[in-house]
Amino acid sequence: MSDPTRPAGPKIVAVANQKGGVGKTTTSINLAAALAEKGRKVLVVDLDPQGNASTGLGIEVDDRVLTTYELLLEDIDLNEAILPTAFENLSIIPATVDLSSADLELISNEKRSFLLHDALRQVQMDLFAFDYVLIDCPPSLNLLTVNAMIAAHSVLVPLQSEFFALEGLSQLMLTIREVRQSGNKELRIEGVVLTMYDQRNNLSLQVEQDARDYLGDLVFKTVIPRNVRVSEAPSFAMPVLNYDPASRGAKAYRDLASEFIRNNARQKVEA
Ligand SMILES: Nc1ncnc2c1ncn2[C@@H]1O[C@H](COP(=O)(O)OP(=O)(O)OP(=O)(O)O)[C@@H](O)[C@H]1O
Ligand SMILES: [Mg+2]
């Protein structure tokens, strides 16, 4: 079933935060899986040389023949890079460690910031009829992340519920502003999602309070709890929704997907 709220082309969302280990990959994988479970066709683009999204969705390194590296740096067709996963409605463009040199290799390329944008707008994209594309960004504000932001309609920011969580957000917002000025005027903030939330911990409550005070409606109502099943799932090469469908983590990502779909339906009406 395609999403009736999105008639023309997929909605492209960059999942970004330059801080490491805040839940970017976990959110990319599990939000994608939850959207797919609700019948949306989803593509995950692994834009991190660590390749964690590829591993977490069960793509063996040997099967990563054409990857985001080739998509950006060599002239390959999009459909050659897109792999199905073992999960219905969920596809991926994988990444390998090769991508770690892309940042340098791209510097001399005149179109360096627009390569992912152009690749994702190849005509074959229509054949796949994706509703959503989620780009898992590396923990950096480098050229890869800029490519993701230029390619995207919006940025989704996972924020770990811990001390100093809000530090670094101003740097991220600055980059978003620069991208708006340099090639993607329409880039929106999809929302900030609190991850690894522990409601017994005052620090989590404080981070949530601060985030809601400073960012208001930009913060998703859904928070993602710290849940061991979420962290175990990647080693079984599956989203937590498949690994333990009844876990608190799976439920939270389903709620996030519902909220995300509702927000997107509203944005369409407003547009
Ligand atoms: N809700 C959660 N509950 C428990 N563990 C979690 C949760 N979310 C993420 N983790 C764990 O926290 C670690 C970091 O998460 P993740 O890899 O998603 O972050 P990241 O921002 O993608 O990291 P990087 O910046 O290295 O790409 C992982 O070990 C992951 O399994
Ligand atoms: Mg990651």
From TrEMBL:
Gene3D superfamilies: P-loop containing nucleotide triphosphate hydrolases. SUPFAM superfamilies: P-loop containing nucleoside triphosphate hydrolases. InterPro entries: AAA_dom (IPR025669), DNA_Partitioning_ATPase (IPR050678), P-loop_NTPase (IPR027417). Pfam families: AAA_31. Residues 11-189 form the AAA domain. This is AAA family ATPase. It comes from Pseudosulfitobacter koreensis.
